[in-house]
Amino acid sequence: MEVCYQLPVLPLDRPVPKHVLSRRGAISFSSSSSLFGAPDPRQLSQRRGAISYESSDQTALYIRMLGDVRVRSQVGFEPERRASHPYLRIDFRTLHSRAETVGLLSGRRVHRLFSFQRHLHATRLLHGATPRPYSPLHILDEDYLGQAKCMLEKVGSWNFDIFLFDRLTNGNSLVTLTFHLLNQYGLIELFQLDMVKLRRFLVMVQEDYHSQNPYHNAVHAADVTQAMYCYLREPKLAKSLTSCDILLGLLAAATHDLDHPGVNQPFLIKTNHYLAVLYRNTSVLENHHWRSVVGLLRETGLFSHLPAEDGLNMESQLGSLILATDISRQNDYLSKFRTHLDHDDLCLGNAAHRHFILQMALKCADICNPCRPWELSKQWSEKVTQEFFQQGEVEKKHNLEVSPLCDSQANTMGDIQIGFMTYVVEPLFAEWARFSDTRLSQTMLGHLGLNKASWNGLRPVGSLDEPEPDPDPPPPPAPGPGSSRPSATAAEEPTTRTLAQGSQEV
Questions:
Q1: How many H-runs (helices) and E-runs (strands) does the chain carry?
Q2: Cα separation of 504 and 506, whole Å?
Q3: Do 197 and 302 form a contact (C-beta atoms < 8 A)?
């Protein structure tokens, strides 16, 4: 006799409507077929489990699984009669599973195609209507909404897994996270932002990130936004920043790499790209990101209710924050930051000083990947290296000089990461820890040291005998506006120019 396992109750975000409860339905699984609604009594012996709801409890789903569960390689739901469902006409055949390995339920991968947008898209096709170009989903699948909300309760944790959150939001991590943070701070009500305009703006921002980029995509923007939120909560900033500062900081983080092409500034310059010509080879990508944000703000009219002067001022300050992520100006900002700390003359009551700290916070958030736990940091390292090498392949294909760090034959992931940590990340975060000596700062430096040691451990045996680079070298000289690589002061100096994992002109 089989044993019935009662899984924990899955809480719902809203009560189940009474007209749905009256149907007393369930999604059940069987060895021969998959049914929606009450199963045929003759097939009860074949049932392996069910997801059901009860009229006595309108706020939970009950998941029951029988022992020795098996999932077929292709499970299909028969479509329900259209007239019998009070909502949209959903074709349940779009909900299917695929067995990756023969065995238990944990071995399956579920393709989540159960959403309003995809249904409507399919309906247009069935009725012969010409569909609009496919766009990312903007509404969460109901069965994943609760889990994403649970993650948002811990959005201030430095261990926040943005990759998992992106999966739970069906690829809408940037929209969901940014909207949640703006709402949590009360900025939507305070600045009287129109909810429809704000939602449209965030959706357009997310869509303008190139999903085909391994690294510079909407998930990276969401990760930087979450890191920025962690910094905004630091005691020195939390008690000093104004609501306008917080709004600018979150929007700048969400849009700092908008419409990134997946290649760096030197590539745009040597291919005579129109952006390089337009911005005269100076902060080409950062200027483009800023102007793209301004375009979306004006298209959606997000700040149209504000006085014209205030709207222009917001756009200008957003630009100042985004331009600070230009890695070629790292030395300028770091020297200024160090000078302020040496003289202890930072006054956060001064608007200009607060804005400068926001710039430094965004720079830290932009390249904080090496300061994350190893499981997250390693994934980001793989993605940015993949993007570098993709650019290198394009350059080889068109007989162009391969940019530093972009040649997969001459560089390894470990060497790239160690150089990046040594010459870019460590100097910046050491000064940030001087400014904000908190548990978070020490945690980041701790992860940075452990991750660097891990990459050293993964180096080929022959390279372990190489002398360790100076852990605190002098900052590199700032390059000229048209140069693609500064004069190197150490063997791995190119790292300071081309490997900006977070902001980079890559």
A1: 21, 8
A2: 5
A3: yes
How far apart (Å, rounded) are the C-alpha atoms in residues 4 and 1? 10
Structure tokens given for 226: 């979450």
DSSP tag of 466: S
Task: Please give the full DSSP string across 306-328, using - where no structure is assigned.
Answer: S-HHHHHHHHHHHHHHHHTT-GG
Per the residue annotation, which of 121, 127, 210, 216 is the catalytic one?
A: 216
Rounded to 10 deg, the angle between the 284-300 and 308-323 helix axes is 150
d(CA 504, CA 261) in angstroms, rounded, equals 12
Please give the Cα distance from 466 to 488 (Å, whole number): 18
Given a contact cutoff of 8 angstroms between Cβ atoms, the answer to whether 367 and 501 are in contact is yes
The three-point CA angle 64-172-167 to 5° equals 40
Q: Which tokens hold the place of 379?
A: 């994934």
Which ranges constitute the DSSP H helices of 169-272? 173-184, 187-190, 195-208, 218-232, 235-238, 243-255, 265-270
Residue tagged 């509404």 (tokens): 139
Given a contact cutoff of 8 angstroms between Cβ atoms, the answer to whether 20 and 64 are in contact is no
Instruction: With cut-offs at 50, 70 and 90, classify the pLDDT of residue 16.
Output: low
Q: Evaluate if pTM is beyond 0.90.
A: no
Residue 109 is predicted with a pLDDT of 39
Beta-carbon neighbour count of residue 447 at 10 Å?
21
How many whole angstroms from its chain centre is CA 499?
19
CA proximity to 71, closest of 35, 93, 46, 103: 103
How many whole angstroms from its chain centre is CA 41?
47
Q: In 3-state terms, what secondary structure has residue 126?
A: helix
In 3D, which of 365, 394, 395, 392 has the Cα closest to residue 380? 365
Q: Nearest 5°: CA angle at 37, between 36 and 38?
A: 130
Per DSSP, what are the bridge partners of residue 230? none
- Based on the residue annotation, tell me whether 216 is a catalytic residue of this protein: yes
- Residue 108 near residue 71 (C-beta atoms within 8 A): yes
Note the pLDDT tens digit of each residue in 264-301: 999 999 999 999 999 999 999 999 999 999 999 999 99
Element (H, E) at 110: strand 108-111
What is the Cβ-side half-sphere exposure of residue 200, based on CA atoms within 13 angstroms? 13
**Could you tell me the two tokens for 480?**
């000229």
Task: Supply the angle between the helices 243-255 and 284-300 in degrees, to the nearest 10.
Answer: 110
Those residues whose C-beta lies under 8 Å from the C-beta of residue 219, and which sit 6 or more positions away, are 162, 163, 166, 173, 174
Q: What is the Cα–Cα distance from 177 to 222, expressed in whole angstroms? A: 7
